[in-house]
# Entry
Amino acid sequence: MTVRMTVAELEQARDLDLGATDWVVVTQEQVDLFAEATGDHQWIHVDRERAAQGPFGGTIAHGYLTLSKLPALMAQLLQITDSAMGVNYGLDRLRMTAPVPVGSKIRVRGRLLDATGKSGGVLYRVEMDVEVEGNDRPALVATGLYLVYSRS
# Structure
């Protein structure tokens, strides 16, 4: 379920559970394309045969590939209905705490921590955990910062 609110409502929001996104599969094709885009061809990501004998029993997603999925997944959790523009503002904290095996399903669980006015917009912080289906430990935990501007 997507939480919908205006920029004004967002600015007043505190400690709001945003729930969890749908599960999405991380594919080898995504990993290979990410490796091409970034130049990171480490064998644990792209060499299926060698990775099968490695510490994870197969290829794993790049941590930064997992991170790059956050904007699209967060759009499932929170929609600012009168937004003219929003930008990723940064991260207060980021930890990649467990591998994401290729072929596994991930989702994001989010909590809106707080929001404050900034530069004519609203800066808000969201605590995000990337969960891997069937694992107790999240693959990634981060506090994301987003800046949104109203159409009005």
About this structure: The mean pLDDT is 97.
